Amino acid sequence: QQQVKQSPQSLIVQKGGISIINCAYENTAFDYFPWYQQFPGKGPALLIAIRPDVSEKKEGRFTISFNKSAKQFSLHIMDSQPGDSATYFCAASSADKIIFGKGTRLHILP
Amino acid sequence: GAVVSQHPSWVICKSGTSVKIECRSLDFQATTMFWYRQFPKQSLMLMATSNEGSKATYEQGVEKDKFLINHASLTLSTLTVTSAHPEDSSFYICSARDRNRPNYGYTFGSGTRLTVV
């Protein structure tokens, strides 16, 4: 019930391509779904987040798609750049808890 | 935006000594702070939840006598690794949530790389 399943574990994308990372959750009590970006040796930084009352949120090249009935959400990175190479974590949170996916290591080929 | 400062960013200590890591919320008050441990190429593992003015809540398998947590104010939580051993070497990260904006996610510190030799 508390798991957040994230896939793929690693992803290689050509520069300019679209990177897609998927997550699924089980607990319907979660009401906030953030994505974090982490570079080596640094703490995770909030990238973009969505609430279950909307199906999509876009900020620049980053888009979250949210499917409440399927309990799934995904991150799309458009026009992927080498600087986007990092580990991405999805998460699901409620008032007192946040659960992270296991992460996706994204590598953008120059 | 919300900023969490974590200090030190890296530390090397000898086996048997203790190390203190600080986590400060710079521009907001945090009644709750969280401490994570991260192994290379792995996700964040929640160690404990630090509550201002009360005892921390530890996750199963985390030794509370080894990882002492103190949350003495609304802007500061500390994690002390006592009698450190090489197996305690890891990346430790704190996060905090703004008490006035509890639905806006968690802000992470920059992490502390602990190496025990």
General description of the model:
- The complex is a heterodimer of chains A (110) and B (117).
- In chain A, strand 4 and strand 5 form a beta hairpin.
- Chain A is globular, with a radius of gyration of 13 Å.
- The model of chain A has no long low-confidence stretch (mean pLDDT 93).
- Chain A is mostly beta strands and 110 residues long.
- Chain A contains no helices and eleven strands.
- In chain A, strands 2, 4, 5, 9, 10 and 11 form a six-stranded mixed sheet that branches. In chain A, strands 1-3-8-7-6 form a five-stranded antiparallel sheet, with no helix packed on it.
- Chain B starts with a strand and ends with a strand.
- Chain B is mostly beta strands.
- The model of chain B has no long low-confidence stretch (mean pLDDT 91).
- In chain B, the strands form two sheets. In chain B, strands 2, 4, 5, 6, 9, 10 and 11 form a seven-stranded mixed sheet that branches. In chain B, strands 1-3-8-7 form a four-stranded antiparallel sheet, with no helix packed on it.
- Classes of the chains: A mainly beta (110), B mainly beta (117).
- Chains A and B meet through strand 5 of A and strand 9 and strand 10 of B.
Distance between the termini of chain B: 37 Å
The overall average pLDDT of chain A, rounded, is 93
How much of the sequence lies in strands of chain A comes to over 45%
Proportion of β residues of chain B?
A: over 45%
Morphology call of chain A: globular
Order of SSEs of chain A = EEEEEEEEEEE
Contiguous uncertain segments of 5+ residues of chain B = none
